[in-house]
Amino acid sequence: MNRFLTGLAACLLLASSLACAGEWVEDPISGCAIWNDEPSGGGDVVSWSGECEDGKAAGHGVLAWFADGGLLVRYVGALKAGRVDGVGTLIIRAEQGDGYDHFEAEFVDGELEGKVVLNAANGDRFQGTMKQSIIEGYGSYIGANGDRYDGEFVNGLPQGAGFSEAADGELYKGLFQAGNRHGEGTLIDANGDEFEGEFVDGKMQGWGSWRSADGSRFEGQFKDGKPNGQGIYRAPNGDIFNGSFVDGIANGEMSVTTADGKQSTQVWKNGEQAE
Fold it and tell me: What is the CA radius of gyration of the chain?
């Protein structure tokens, strides 16, 4: 998903290029001026089919932008004072690979502002809201590879409550921060193992409960994605181990209760019972 968001950011940079510092480019036929943020140096040419107000493109029409010998941008919708403004359909040459990214969106003074539907040339799709050409608010992303995210975005990245589904079947429902799992959440991996608890910067961290598809279970402290600290491990055969764990394996004194109810104290080192 982060690769998509990086690519999307590049698309949005192009989409917002009509709003930033640059220069005016005139339609050589009508004389209407269009704002250009990043002149290519390759003889940019624009064509505008709509009206002019004070020498600048205005009203509803079709804008075509050519650079480096090919079509760079095509926009059908409203312009105001030479900048896209209103509801319109925009296609932009993809930054990577062939084809064009397609936007159906709302614009304000050249920026994507409001509801947006993006169908990228690489097969990715985004539907949601944007503010000043950055994804902000609720949105839904479906990647060409099958990855999916539905939830809140802040500054272009998942943040807040959300749901993600990876192409391999991994599921996560919970909180995100800056694109990473962060806070309370539930993760079910592709094998059917399930973790419920705290995440920090994408890793299981703090108190949590892990239930494996083989029937085993661990409840206790996690660090860097593995059991670290005090916890209780329940084996598939019903034996219960209560003690200290390091990097996912038993290490130290363990209070053991077997499935038939017998209790004992054992010492474990690096995942093996000490003699």
Answer: 27
- Residue at 178 is within a domain: no
Cα 104 from Cα 112, distance rounded (Å): 10
Nearest to 64 by CA among 49, 79, 54: 49
Q: How many domains does the chain have?
A: 2
Question: In which element (H, E) is residue 61 found?
Answer: strand 56-67
C-alpha closest to that of 206 among 217, 220, 195, 194 = 220
- Residues 228, 234, 237, 238: is their CA dihedral positive or negative? positive
pLDDT in tens, 187-212: 999 999 999 999 999 999 999 999 99
Segment 101-125, tens digit of pLDDT: 999 999 998 889 999 999 999 999 9
Query: Smallest Cα–Cα separation from 27: which of 10, 9, 46?
Result: 46
Average pLDDT score over residue span 22-29: 86
- 120 is a domain residue: yes
Tokens coding 29: 């036929």
68 contacts: CB under 8 Å, gap ≥ 6: 40, 42
The pLDDT, as a whole number, for residue 41 is 58
State the CATH number of the domain containing residue 238. 2.20.110
Distance CA 5, CA 29 (A): 38
pLDDT, the chain, mean: 88
Please give the model's pTM, rounded to 2 decimal places: 0.82
pLDDT surpassing 90 at residue 181: yes
Structural domain for 118, as ranges: 1-144
Q: CB-hemisphere CA count at 13 Å for 166? A: 11
Same domain (yes/no): 118, 249: no
Residues 123 and 239 in one domain: no
CA distance 3 to 95: 13
